[in-house]
Fold:
Amino acid sequence: MAHIDYDERIPNNVDLAHDRRLKKALEKWQPAYLDWWKGVGPQVFKGNDIYLRTAISTEAGGWANFGYVKMPDYRWGIFLADREEDRTIPAGDHAGQPVWQEVPGEYRNVLKRIIVVQADTEPASVEQQRWLAATAPSLYDARNLFQVNVEEGRHLWAMVYLLHAYFGRDGRAEADELLARRAGDDDKPRILDAFNQPCQDWLTFHCFTCFTDRDGKYQLGALAESAFDPLSRTCRFMLTEEAHHLFVGESGLERIMRRAAQLEREAPNGDPRELGGIDLQTIQKYVNYWFTYSIDLFGSEVSTNAADYFASGLKGRWREAKDHDEHSALHQQKTIEYVEDGRVVGREVPLRNAMNEILREDYASDCDRVVKRWNKALEEEGSDFRMVLPSTKFHRRQGIYADHHFNPAGELISADEWESKRDSWLPTESDRQYVHSLMKPVYEPGKFANYIAAPRRGIHGQPVEFEYVRTDG
Amino acid sequence: MGHDFAYPPVDFETHPDRYKHWKLSVDGPVATLVMAVAEDGGMWPGRYELKLNSYDLGVDIELADAVQRLRFEHPEVRVVQITGGLDAKIFCAGANIRMLSMAPHAFKVNFCKFTNETRTSIEDATDHSGQHYVAALNGTASGGGYELALACEKIWLIDDGNAAVSLPEVPLLGVLPGTGGLTRITDKRRIRRDMADVFCTKAEGFRARDALKHDFIDAAWPRSQWEEGTARAAVDLAAEITDTLPLKKDGPGVALPALERDDTDDGWSYRFVDVVLDHDNGDRVATVTIKGPPSDGADADPVRGADTWCLRAFRELDDALLRLRVNHLGVGLILLRAEGDRDAILAHEAAMLRGADDDWFWREVQLFVARTLRRVDNTSKTFFAIIDEGSAFVGTLLELALAADRQYMFLDDDGENSVLLSEANEGVFPMASGISRLEARFPGDRDAIEAVVEVEGEIDAETCEELGLVTLSLDDIDWEDEVRIAIEERVSLSPDALTGMEQNLRFGGGETCETKIYGRLSAWQNWIFQRPNAVGDRGALSMFGHPERPIFDFNRT
Structure:
């Protein structure tokens, strides 16, 4: 086999060049990854120069090197946040003991499963979005999409590194499976349902990036508190990249909202649709849909697995080490609202069993802050419309509310009321068709589709009209 | 909760119209049983939810009913597909753990035993009735879910990258698979012991590729080909079975009507079976009397239907046994009595056994009687056969006496009290070990068996004792006292020790997959179910679903 300069080709801080086992695993996996990327990664501007950032080290400036790169040549690297000396286990029964540098046999299978489920979402979203650039509302947006895509690819690398380095033959088999499953494929679907829906319009993309990627942020946050130090360090580094993805989603939606408010003023009847925009009511419906779709990903409100993961130290709470003083979470209760005989009743459950719900609450507060920022933008644009985050009980398909109907305010309602009002709360087929009808590419630098406002500023100090994607190749 | 919880009495009768958890449909030679367990349909409302198609006794009673009805009511069915009806990616998550951890120990054991009997009845239908069961696992089958699949002739698993088969009891709960899983993977599927070891300690189990490679399943299809692939395979299998059936099997079937049960002051009664609880002995003793067919001379040509004596009487006996087991834990000793016209019994039996050669219905009756007798063998209560004056322990009913732990026979002056052997005692109702009750009674002693079989006609009490067919024959001077003392002595002994002792002694001779399943359930699983590592304050079963993790005592026993 030809000599490969691993450190050049795969930027890393795991001493890849001297790790025989890892090299051997990657020699096989890396070409398969490239085939995967070419086959089901971005299908538009495949070979064009894109203005992207690449992580080449974990130093202050090292993780964000900007420059033109053709995506298949992107240098997907392996980075872990720097090791903290004397780090101790943040949560659970082993709290305070030294963290694990190797996987304890007792938790091997369950840790592997946690990593696989997390890892599976990374390539899935790339697959879901592979045709999206064909309708990019601007080159700026296309570039943001690609940045998200290559970094999801890198997150897959990060997870595959853990599987290769710590989970032996099983881990290698799982790493192969991550490239074999396909979003939306009937036979080899991605593990989580939310990652099997195609993403075909930019309102959906921004909702997905804002809400579903934010679930990823909180899952990574919980894993950053893991007793298994390599997982914790990997997740901490991924979180620094994730912030940009959330920015893309939040600011993308904000720009669509600003544009809606502007068109509302300009349209003769006050309806942005007359001028080819997306009205705020429709955006609210998409927010309702994607927020609730994403909170399903946190799992059941009361969960044995969640308690187990916490007890064994595999996951902690959001900012466990920084924000919590008591790390056993034993002998404490949390009130969970159940539906009993047609009424909502609070019931005490052991705190550890409620860890999914606790993480979901942290996530929902984060989303709440986002909505507040949007509403400030709407105010600036002179609109009276205010976005509202629906209740976490509304439109649930998983967990204890899944069999009941709630309105967006979180009040229990009848099935009849649900049927009669759902079209005013969630996107209808005609809403989707309308949004799809707007999806036309705009590939002229500095120009934007009419339904989305230009951003305030460009990427990495570049102007908005910068040629983020070189369309001539 | 736990041991103080007095559960409500269990009713073992049901009907497809009343099923909460299963949907039975028949399409020509292929029947489908769809498992869609109602979360709020548990036996003890409000105490646990039957999530993820987990099951309790109520779910299994419906399954047992379906298996039984398919044999009698749908003789045209060759293949029964068991599949999942949940939207979730799960076929069945096994026995409901919350139910198990709150159930009193005796209930747990009875639950496991009943579910085992349902699974062996599935195998019985496959082996003897030309109704082959297929597990079409359209989602993950874990624990008891996979054990249900193991009871089937073939296991098909959807290959969608997620669905798996697993036995997570050891790694997750600190107990064993309770419905024959361990025995079946080695003895039935003949899987290598080291791979079996890996499988049984890997909580997530094997997905299609590995499961197929190591024979934990027989076939797999991807999602897009699942419906078509399994449907075609089922039809092909049905055709294959039809070609090899030893006797013609088609409709119409024989519907099984509900049993009519009347509660009495001291027990209950059916048409041919009475149960009387003995209040004098603190309800520790029950007398079960089975009555022969009416002597109207019609027995040489008995009615071919659900009301025919043998089927009806043994269905009643079966129901009585189940009720005694689960609803009358205090009863430790069952006295078996048989009454009726001996000639009528023998004539009926002869007609049944003759019919069994070429008529599926009579064959099913014979197989059912055999299953009910095995239910006696597996009941953890002492049985004494009381062969009193006027008794009718002949042929099929003598088999019941031979199933008992002891036989007390009244020795009358003129030798009229007697028993009579027939073809029924020569292996047409085999025990779980595959041998007749005579063979199990005289392990390895061909001479003793032949001496019994060679006797022509009725055998009086004295001869019975000589031949070893009864434990004691007692004349009128001793009869009442001896029987009374035997009863009183028996109910004074440790019930646990008796259960273990009886199960050891009843199964003389070799082992089969089936005897191993019950034997190991009684010995290993029920032992582990009592150990602190499972059910102590920090045992794995106690901790399941709780915020703390288990703590083990690592000393091996």
